[in-house]
Amino acid sequence: xxxxxxxxxxxxxxxxxxxxxxxxxxxxxxxxxxxxxxxxxxxxxxxxxxxxxxxxxxxxxxxxxxxxxxxxxxxxxxxxxxxxxxxxxxxxxxxxxxxxxxxxxxxxxxxxxxxxxxxxxxxxxxxxxxxxxxxxxxxxxxxxxxxxxxxxxxxxxxxxxxxxxxxxxxxxxxxxxxxxxxxxxxxxxxxxxxxxxxxxxxxxxxxxxxxxxxxxxxxxxxxxxxxxxxxxxxxxxxxxxxxxxxxxxxx
Length: 251
Fold this sequence. Notes:
By secondary structure, the chain is mainly alpha-helical. The chain has helices at 66-69, 71-102, 114-145, 151-181, 195-201, 211-224, 228-242; strands spanning 17-18, 31-36, 48-52, 58-59, 104-105, 108-109. The longest helix has 32 residues, at 71-102. The radius of gyration is 23 Å and the shape is flat. The N and C termini lie far apart (56 Å).
């Protein structure tokens, strides 16, 4: 909305404002809390509907450039989402492994059942792969923030960030669900505190962009870079493969 009250449709009409929640008297700055929302999970992080009436704020972006101004922040918050996803998976696997040493079934501990241990091993592979992806994206972000990134590094950060967020978000739900199954019926009981992990993990595919939004973002990066992000990705993959005994033919 412009100063004259005219509304422009779409994100092009959005500007970025800084709004303090309380004024100098310590009272809410024209903010009215309409209601707290009932959510599937993440209930320890309240979400509310707010009504702004007379709130004082400062525009900190050029008019209509609000979305463009927070683009760099989206890279950071999406990486934060990846951190959460990896942490969810690691916590679930750690608990499942510990439970396997204590729970007995068919006359022996769960850890002595090969099929159960195979399930845990597959979960472990998932989380280790996600962790390595997280570390690579974090390395690229560090290079960019210290002005040491090459053009290829910047292209890799641009394409890997939405990919990592998309993939690990879905991974976290799958691994958490598998983890609950490792506890048998106890994984389904609310008084164990375990179901909350699955409810909380579900938000990781929604926060900072859903699957389709991230997919479109990847396509935009391909178009805007004229395919250079894809060249950077395949080049990096080939270099990595050269250090592996599995794909010597690529070198």
